[in-house]
User: Fold this.
Amino acid sequence: MSTLSLKGPYWVTVRQHRRVLWAVPALVGASLAATVALRAWSGTSESDRMDMSTEYYAWELFRLCVMYAGNTMLFLPLLVGAFVAGPMVARELESGTWRLALTQSTTARAWLGSKVLVAAVVSVLGSTALIGVYRLGWSRVSGSWQLNWADRGPYEATGPVLIGYCLLGVALGALVGQLVRRTLTAMAVTGLLTGLVLLVLGALRWSFLPVVTRTVPYPGDAGPRLPGSALMMDTGYLSSTGERLSENSCFNPTDPTAGCPADLHITARYLDFHPASHHWPTQLIETSILLALAAAALYGAFRLVHARHP
Assistant:
């Protein structure tokens, strides 16, 4: 990363962490080379699973690599946040080297701003490049087991939500690094907080948009069919009063083929799902929430640095 056009605290920040910053394009380049090589070796499509040929094994290896790559990218925001909180902020506060920056006609806000801006730019560019590389591989195996658009891993690694998590990691790192002021502890706390947000929003994201419901009369069809690539949320029975009953309401262990008891007054079966068209709206809603959280954390970080070092 060239530092010729950078000045003041920005130049210092890039020089201090140049090895890590250079590792980002190296990681992107290695990922791209591996993806292109594996994609070319895996053939043009999934072979018949009953045909245990070399082409099938190559495709399956490629699929596994894409699946694990998506899961691994979930840790990227945690690493970004931990690096900002520890080596970039808390270590300088812990060792006292940040005072040197303040003697060079630099304010405390400019010192923190240089850390945040450099980390944010590199995080956005790096995560965007990795998303592009991942989509190049995922497009070949999308829809296979654990690689649907809504699965944990592919969902985060194929859209702007990963960028939002990385920016949240930067903001939390800037705030926690000042509050904790201990390198390893700040890294652990920031990684924990970022991971907690990832888990909470992952559990809530499919409630951002209303589900689509399909019903069929009972006992006509065996049940409503799930559209291709859709994410099923719930299925069961509807009574004459509109009450929803679970799928197991009509199960009879002594006679599994028996229908629903008459006293339940079942009139229809229902199926709730999210179609594939909900992918991008959900991504945008979740990304907006992440950016709002990141803005709040950044506001707190700069208020804190101003209060301690006006």
About this structure: The two ends are 32 Å apart (CA to CA). The chain has two domains: 8-205+278-308, 212-277.
